């Protein structure tokens, strides 16, 4: 009796007669062969170094997701595995769910899932249900990833088919963001219901900064245009960069003339200094702390 039967029997001693048929291992291998031989995924077991017979977790990289049209013009057409077992497209879809039924005796097994670097195939519509059940949710994603998804949603161009799928799925598939999947049994003692409960976890070692560079390289942030204020235009005209000595003297003369005009306005009680207007603070001159207004610049460079 396998561990699943033992678990059921521990809650219901009468449920010990398991129907005869292929073992769970044979069923799991059948569906795994479907995904492997169609080159849809790559699966690698990660074993315990101290106990090589124990599989700690599996890594699963998604290479492609075959649509019904790509599989066959006839959805129930049978194809042959190397084991001589047959399968159709319905079996292919089931394989995407059954592949995760592997479990350890202490229910510590997990799946490390990601899209392969060369993944570019479109998503069939049935994959939406798979994603809702096995894909990551916003609650586990770091704030930085959520910000990148929002940026991607605003800047990326989507096809008509893409609009049917969550932007989170499209982003994760494009930029290869991994996640961890686990499951265990949820047991309701009063009604004796056994159900698999899947949980999703974020991989803490993922380098968000590396993905961010790719995202902003593909979808750069457009600079925000800024209006030029009159004061900015004055500062631009009075720029000292690349000026000759004569030009710098002219700039200093203009600044002194402006300062003198401001003093005259204050002495005459101009409206700008009136109590009925907000008091403005006179900006500190760029040469105020210097005896010579030019000594902060290299006048000998042309």
TrEMBL record:
Region (Disordered): 259-302
Protein name per UniProt: Uncharacterized protein
Organism name: Prunus dulcis
